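Why this split exists: single-chain examples teach little about how molecules sit against one another. For that reason, every record in the complexes split bundles all components of an assembly together and asks for one structure covering all of them. Below is a record exactly as it appears in the raw files.
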Amino acid sequence: MRKLIIPLACVALLALPAVVPNDYLMRLVNVGIIYAILAVSLNFVLGYAGQISLGHAGFFGIGAYTAGILTHTGPGYMFWPVFVLAGGMAGLAGLIIGVPALRLKGHYLAFGTLGFGEIIRIILFNWQEVTHGGDGIAAIPAPSVFGFQFDNDQKYFYLSLAFLLLVLLLARRTETSKYGRSFAALRDAEMAAGTTGVNVTRIKILAFVISSVIAGCAGSLYAHLVGFISPDAFTFEVTAQVLSMVLLGGMGTTFGPVLGAAFITMLPEMLRISKEYYQVIYGAGVAFAVVFLPQGILGFLSRRKAVKVPQLGENGVIEELALDDPAIDLLRPKSGSGAGDDVLLSIKNLTCRFGGLIAINDLSMQVRSGTIHALIGPNGAGKSTFINLVSGVYQRQEGVMEFGGQVLPVSSSWNIAKAGIARTFQNLRSFHSLTVMDNVLVGCRSAKPASWSSVMLGSSAAAREETDLRATAEAALRFVGLWAMRDIPVSALPHELQRMVEIARALAMRPRMILLDEPAAGMNPTEVERLVVQVRKMKAIGLTVLIVEHNMPFVMKIADTITVLNFGKKIADGTPVQIQQNPEVIGAYLGKRAAAKEVKNAVA
Ligand code: ADP
Ligand code: MG
């Protein structure tokens, strides 16, 4: 039965022009399709990448005016080259606006893009010589190809429908590819996306450009459908309408925007009988949708059923990736394995201030390659700040950080990730809308990444890349013993398991060094035992591990070297035995003698 749905829907769609009774309704269908294309395009930015954009009518307008200005009173076949150009012009505007605008976040981005939309409308009004101002541009020809004219709404329907289907295909392919995962990572946890190696700036601009190119093409379709354009068709009202289509249908879903567009375009028609109450019903409907369908119609329909989290192995036995398994090679550091005693991370005179507070104070330390290095100290000592500095989340104010003999790039966390540093977070930062597998896949990166176009075209290179990425993700998930959980939404897992997913995500990046910020928090003794084994295994495959941990027995057991911080200053550095005998450490950190004894017992 399900197999029949798609062919039946296709036949129904193709037969639509023959069924729809009048030209007026057919025009409405066409306008609805163009709005659906706009809504899908907005969904790239808003739904997939999670960036608010309120300037969409601007890109729509640029496309429509490019088409109108270049083709009016001209031949119909000019539609085709100008269609491409219209998308290109809007895409260019998206790029020019996007680069500065995407430094903004949340409300500021909303205001920035709102301003852009207004500027475009004002230009359309005032650039008389080119846009004919308020008079608009008339006599835009119907598209033609080899003498065939799309000169009525019945024929035009096939043109707009074909483009909508193409755009939906792109949306679907984006969603299910590495690009979709990167967009979702950006949307769910921008900071973690960066430290997981997603080039946040690039991916934001990509979303913006794809979105504006499609909106520009929709503008061209609109201009040629209606034959006349004026600035009134590209006001903020259009943006608001498209926005409500996306929200109503279901943000971030493939078909939600189309559903929303169909609904909102047809609604006035359905309510025509009660003309005087139309506004009231419409308003009440929108309010209802906002309150009761926060995820939109599709979000509501596909509400997550209670997820059953599989038991981890029988009798608590978890099958983990053994060191002699060939798949372990997929997790070894990409470059420069950790053998030898050379210094991998060298920190000199690092300082970081927050206002008057000095979180890291003139810190110098070295982490040797291939070792497990623990960073300990009381709460607020600056341990997480240190990890944030090394992973590029915070910008250092003073000092030098060298990694593998190279000065660490300051510009961005993803460049640091690329240099071979991966991390986990003390406060969970999972990509909560993705499955466990997709979370880990965000960290996977191939040496020769397939381009957006080759992914969209479904090339064999792109397919091969995806297979490779999945193999790495599988190895990482098996490494932490969570392979059985791969298809579960990560947010359904308890916190300590989400922490393990973060570790797998970091391992999948194949870093030279992994920074673990309190990985054992909230774990029971059995889980801690397992973590000990895993950290040792990381060392065994050539990783350098820097671990922040409160659990002293754990630290003393696995660390080769320990650095102790207090109030942002290093107070000791040495082997576990040296540290536990250091009077300053006992005084400042461990405090009481009893605590020192506890440590001693743990090591013994
Ligand atoms: P630890 O991880 O060792 O417990 P942190 O590195 O989280 O400590 O914090 C060190 C100090 O820096 C604390 O006093 C904390 O309040 C402060 N701090 C950390 N991050 C920020 C920030 N983003 N803004 C202001 N203060 C911060
Ligand atoms: Mg901390």
